[in-house]
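Example record for the data management plan.
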Amino acid sequence: MTNEQRAQFKESLGVARETRDELVLERTKIDRELMQQSKVIAALSELLGESIDSDIGITEATLLVIRAANGPATPIQIRDELRKIGYDIDSFSNPMASLHQVLKRLEDKGEIREVKNSEGKKYYQFGGWRSLMVGSPPPVLEEGMSLMQKRKK
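Corresponding structural encoding:
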């Protein structure tokens, strides 16, 4: 590989990382807005005595809560946020056991990661190894070079 090729690859890598970071930030903003709208729906549904019409599963709801959080959250905080958005976690025979199972599965898949405080208390946060992947795999080099050219103009 020539120095010129190496420089082009490095520049493409920088553009790809910048684009990824922008997309992750955009996704975070959307997730937070989804959480806010879910809370509004839950509050208005309760006020009107209507049921919350949601076909979202516990895994998706949990991931939404974690993505929208301002920082690491304990399983109890996650459960409480699920309730706030109107997710009926209490319909499970053992809600916390179900939630812990979901958290473990999301961690195993690389969607979230566990962090511990100085006392060893477990928290979960968005940012597992797969969280940086937005949609499909990274674009091929030619697409990266095309993006780079567009940005220069």
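Summary line stored alongside the record: The beta strands are 112-116, 122-126.
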